[in-house]
Amino acid sequence: VTAPDRIQRRERLAVVFREAVAGRREALDELVPELTPMLWRVARSTGLDAAGCEDVVQQTWLSLLGNLRQIRTADALAGWLVVVTRREAIRMHTARLRTRQTAEHVLEQVPDGRPTVEDRIADDERGRVLWRIIGMLPARCVQLLQVVAFSERPDYAGIAAALGMPKGSIGPTRGRCLAKLRQLLASDPGWSW
Amino acid sequence: MNESPDADGIIDDIDVAVLGHLAALYTTVDPVPDGLVQRIQFAMALEELDVEVLRLVDETATAGARGDVGRIYTFQNAGLDLTVRVAGRTGDTLRIDGWLAPPAAYRIVLRAGGRLLERTADPDGRFVFERVPAGPARIFIRPHDGTDPHETALATPEVVL
Hints:
With 193 residues, chain A is mostly helical. Chain A contains 9 helices and no strands. The radius of gyration of chain A is 18 Å and the shape is globular.
């Protein structure tokens, strides 16, 4: 993926979005696979479990149906979806934590049955290096970068703002996070470009 | 790989490559669950479905064995009766038994707690949903094979279980 590819994708999404607003039902269906991977990261980065995130992401798309006409552009759409997803994921996560405090002594921790991260990247040397290095970044950077990685926007101001990053620090924060990651990768003997 | 990303949000090809690696990594370690996109599309189609809403004509509390308190709802339109018994509360989940009269092997979709559960009624018009999250719920009945999202379906009003 190069920068021009991202810009092309952004333009294509803008067209599909306008068609969806104009009432072409299939256009709305096309937006779902395009934007769900980003929303999945928004939800997961709050710490909510996978089943809860599925509910939250689905609910977010359903609530879009009643609000589509109030959203003006494809960029605004992405921002709206990110805000709603994050808010609902945090709300559900907080509610669960509160319930768990009373239920903790009764219920055992049940593993969710999904393969662990280590299993999934066992055969991927580069992936292991990158995963280790991500772990060295500040939590705020990890949260921002994993969402930005799935965004088609050449600048990330709206996404970062939607993630609750203070407006004045958005550019520098994104810059600092990316720069830090690049610097760590460049200085790691296990990483190759 | 010389220029660092700056405060104005200008990114170079290295940034794009790094973000691409990140996206690939997260897709590997924590992918969007299989079928989620399709379930979302299905849920959205259902939401916009042209539905005829059944009337709630009766609602009765029942007391079963071992204090298993439940409710029976009866919904109706000109051609169909739907009876739903809600019982078996365990924690936050419930069991739903439904009967369609006249019986038909319709597709039944239950929307509850942000989830969609699907069954086909048996030839006697019966269907069961277990472990249904408590809270607002709605049942959709699709008379045919349910593949045409624009067909008219039947639905109950939203009921709090």
